[in-house]
Amino acid sequence: MISVIVLVVVIYFASSLITAKQNNVVEINKLIRKSYKYSGLNPSIHNEFIENIKMALEYKTNIILSKKLMNRSLINLDEIALSSVSGDTNILEDIDTVISDLKTNFNELYSNLQAESE
Predict the structure, then answer these.
(1) C-alpha R_g of the chain
(2) pLDDT of amino acid 71
Protein backbone atom coordinates (compact mmCIF):
# COMPACT_ATOMS: atom_id res chain seq x y z
CA MET A 1 0.00 0.00 0.00
CA ILE A 2 2.74 2.44 0.94
CA SER A 3 4.71 1.57 -2.17
CA VAL A 4 1.72 2.53 -4.33
CA ILE A 5 1.47 5.89 -2.59
CA VAL A 6 5.20 6.52 -3.02
CA LEU A 7 4.95 5.56 -6.70
CA VAL A 8 2.06 8.00 -7.23
CA VAL A 9 3.99 10.81 -5.52
CA VAL A 10 7.09 10.16 -7.67
CA ILE A 11 5.02 10.15 -10.87
CA TYR A 12 3.33 13.39 -9.83
CA PHE A 13 6.63 15.18 -9.21
CA ALA A 14 8.16 13.86 -12.43
CA SER A 15 5.18 15.03 -14.46
CA SER A 16 5.24 18.46 -12.83
CA LEU A 17 8.91 18.89 -13.83
CA ILE A 18 8.14 17.94 -17.42
CA THR A 19 5.18 20.33 -17.52
CA ALA A 20 7.25 23.24 -16.16
CA LYS A 21 9.97 22.64 -18.76
CA GLN A 22 7.44 22.50 -21.59
CA ASN A 23 5.72 25.67 -20.34
CA ASN A 24 9.01 27.58 -20.59
CA VAL A 25 9.61 26.37 -24.13
CA VAL A 26 6.07 27.32 -25.14
CA GLU A 27 6.52 30.78 -23.62
CA ILE A 28 9.87 31.22 -25.40
CA ASN A 29 8.23 30.30 -28.71
CA LYS A 30 5.49 32.88 -28.07
CA LEU A 31 8.15 35.53 -27.45
CA ILE A 32 9.94 34.54 -30.66
CA ARG A 33 6.68 34.99 -32.57
CA LYS A 34 6.22 38.35 -30.86
CA SER A 35 9.61 39.48 -32.19
CA TYR A 36 8.55 39.02 -35.82
CA LYS A 37 6.85 42.41 -35.86
CA TYR A 38 10.31 43.98 -35.48
CA SER A 39 11.86 42.03 -38.34
CA GLY A 40 11.29 44.89 -40.76
CA LEU A 41 13.66 47.17 -38.84
CA ASN A 42 16.68 45.07 -39.78
CA PRO A 43 15.84 41.79 -41.52
CA SER A 44 19.37 40.33 -41.59
CA ILE A 45 19.92 40.83 -37.86
CA HIS A 46 16.46 39.44 -37.14
CA ASN A 47 17.34 36.31 -39.14
CA GLU A 48 20.50 35.94 -37.02
CA PHE A 49 18.35 36.35 -33.88
CA ILE A 50 15.97 33.60 -35.05
CA GLU A 51 18.81 31.21 -35.90
CA ASN A 52 20.62 31.79 -32.60
CA ILE A 53 17.50 31.47 -30.45
CA LYS A 54 16.40 28.28 -32.23
CA MET A 55 19.85 26.76 -31.76
CA ALA A 56 19.75 27.77 -28.08
CA LEU A 57 16.49 25.84 -27.73
CA GLU A 58 17.82 22.91 -29.73
CA TYR A 59 20.96 22.58 -27.59
CA LYS A 60 19.23 23.36 -24.28
CA THR A 61 20.66 20.21 -22.66
CA ASN A 62 24.18 21.60 -23.22
CA ILE A 63 23.60 24.56 -20.93
CA ILE A 64 26.92 26.33 -21.57
CA LEU A 65 26.50 26.31 -25.36
CA SER A 66 22.83 27.18 -25.09
CA LYS A 67 23.58 30.18 -22.86
CA LYS A 68 26.15 31.47 -25.37
CA LEU A 69 23.65 31.16 -28.20
CA MET A 70 20.91 32.75 -26.10
CA ASN A 71 23.17 35.70 -25.27
CA ARG A 72 24.05 36.14 -28.95
CA SER A 73 20.40 36.14 -29.88
CA LEU A 74 19.62 38.75 -27.21
CA ILE A 75 22.46 40.92 -28.52
CA ASN A 76 20.92 40.59 -31.99
CA LEU A 77 17.54 41.66 -30.65
CA ASP A 78 19.16 44.61 -28.90
CA GLU A 79 20.80 45.62 -32.21
CA ILE A 80 17.36 45.58 -33.82
CA ALA A 81 16.21 48.01 -31.13
CA LEU A 82 19.16 50.26 -31.95
CA SER A 83 18.13 50.17 -35.62
CA SER A 84 14.76 51.72 -34.82
CA VAL A 85 13.89 55.37 -35.23
CA SER A 86 15.44 57.29 -32.34
CA GLY A 87 12.21 58.95 -31.26
CA ASP A 88 10.13 55.78 -31.12
CA THR A 89 10.50 54.74 -27.48
CA ASN A 90 7.55 52.32 -27.64
CA ILE A 91 9.53 49.96 -29.86
CA LEU A 92 12.56 50.22 -27.58
CA GLU A 93 10.44 49.42 -24.51
CA ASP A 94 8.67 46.52 -26.24
CA ILE A 95 11.93 44.96 -27.40
CA ASP A 96 13.46 45.44 -23.95
CA THR A 97 10.45 43.65 -22.44
CA VAL A 98 10.86 40.76 -24.88
CA ILE A 99 14.57 40.54 -24.03
CA SER A 100 13.95 40.43 -20.27
CA ASP A 101 11.13 37.87 -20.67
CA LEU A 102 13.38 35.67 -22.83
CA LYS A 103 16.15 35.85 -20.21
CA THR A 104 13.72 34.93 -17.45
CA ASN A 105 12.23 31.98 -19.33
CA PHE A 106 15.61 30.63 -20.40
CA ASN A 107 16.95 30.89 -16.84
CA GLU A 108 13.91 29.00 -15.54
CA LEU A 109 14.42 26.39 -18.26
CA TYR A 110 18.09 25.98 -17.32
CA SER A 111 17.19 25.71 -13.63
CA ASN A 112 14.64 22.98 -14.40
CA LEU A 113 17.13 21.10 -16.55
CA GLN A 114 19.85 21.28 -13.88
CA ALA A 115 17.43 20.12 -11.18
CA GLU A 116 16.34 17.27 -13.43
CA SER A 117 19.91 16.15 -14.11
CA GLU A 118 20.85 16.09 -10.40
Answers:
(1) 18
(2) 95
